[in-house]
Write a sequence for this structure.
DNA sequence: CTAGTGACTATATTGGAATTTGGTCACGCA
DNA sequence: TGCGTGACCAAATTCCAATATAGTCACTAG
């Protein structure tokens, strides 16, 4: 995994061969296939690492926020900031994440599901404290929020919106918060 | 233009040569460059035609809707439906539109601006009739709505969300309408 | 002066042979 | 029995010469 992250980060997913990784850890190529079903599986594992970091930043944001609204703001801010950082500082790893979103790899699907779970917690909290409205079915809300935030959460789409950071996602979140008003 | 639309639609932008277009209209290649600065300029012109049709469907939707909320719904529904139709029935033309969005051609920028203008009219109407809230600055609202609807308005992004039609954009619009509630 | 073009060039694209690469498997060695 | 591999194959990728294409310009016919 360490070798894979290093190589993918330096040479990109396409340019690193499984043989390279094997040599780096001093084993044969065949042995790697005892642990990973395919090169793509290695890519997914690395992708999961990246997306975990992104989500961790989102969770950290949630922890920092005091009110539910503030948690929501910082949740997305953490995600977007970390994703953008990844883009600028580790473009080649970012490309794997974008590719995983494009190809609908399980890693990307899992990322969205975890994000939805975190989001749900925020909304539920906001409902308890009375910050958010309670009429709309919660799952519909979570789904809709993820849909409208996709342009900034999905690495594949975020890369087309980097010019508008950080104002654009802030405006989007403002809209989302207005939609949650009681 | 007719020749270009026919050729782009049948063979795609990349596979049709300027010489093909010249031959189709019975002039020399050089003559075409009296009217278009480049092949890309021809592509843009065709792209504008496509996006105009999409926006026309949006305008038609506005006309059909009775209330502002209904206009908004039908506006986006018209845009998304027409874009998706273009994708399925004229993939090669759609690809030009997607490419234009990716490369930020003026055609794509103009499309977004016109969309924003139409949107603004709807919102203003909704404010007059009391359907929508009036606190938030109108331009901020329009900008934010376009941002969150990008996943479905932008051809480049819509093509990654075709599986979720037509439910996803409906849910997104529902969220937008909630955000507009007085 | 206007409408239109053939001939030309630098860049991009293609085809397909040669090479790499992802992936498998029978096997060796402790 | 379990850790580990060289040798192998089909499919993908690279490479490069041949070709095609976008774009220009001096030019002509009317």
């Amino acid at each position: 995994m360490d070798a894979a992250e290093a190589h993918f980060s330096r040479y990109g997913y396409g340019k690193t061969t499984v043989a390279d990784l094997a040599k780096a850890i001093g084993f044969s190529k065949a042995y790697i296939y005892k642990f990973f079903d395919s090169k793509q599986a290695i890519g997914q594992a690395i992708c999961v690492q990246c997306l975990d970091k992104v989500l961790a930043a989102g969770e950290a944001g949630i922890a920092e926020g005091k009110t539910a609204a503030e948690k929501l703001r910082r949740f997305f801010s953490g995600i977007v900031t970390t994703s953008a950082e990844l883009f600028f500082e580790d473009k080649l790893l970012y490309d794997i994440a974008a590719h995983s979103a494009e190809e609908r790899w399980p890693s990307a699907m899992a990322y969205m599901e975890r994000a939805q779970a975190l989001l749900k917690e925020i909304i539920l909290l906001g409902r308890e404290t009375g910050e958010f409205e309670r009429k709309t079915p919660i799952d519909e809300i979570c789904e809709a929020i993820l849909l409208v935030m996709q342009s900034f959460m999905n690495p594949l789409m975020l890369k087309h919106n980097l010019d508008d950071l950080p104002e654009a996602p802030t405006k989007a979140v403002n809209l989302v918060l207005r939609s949650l008003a009681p």
About this structure: Residues 27-31, 34 of chain B lie near DNA strand C (CB under 10 Å from a C1'). Chain B touches chain A at residues 101-102, 133, 136, 140-141, 143-145, 147-151, 154, 156-157, 160-161, 168, 171-172, 174-176, 178-181 (CB under 8 Å). DSSP finds ten helices and no strands in chain B.
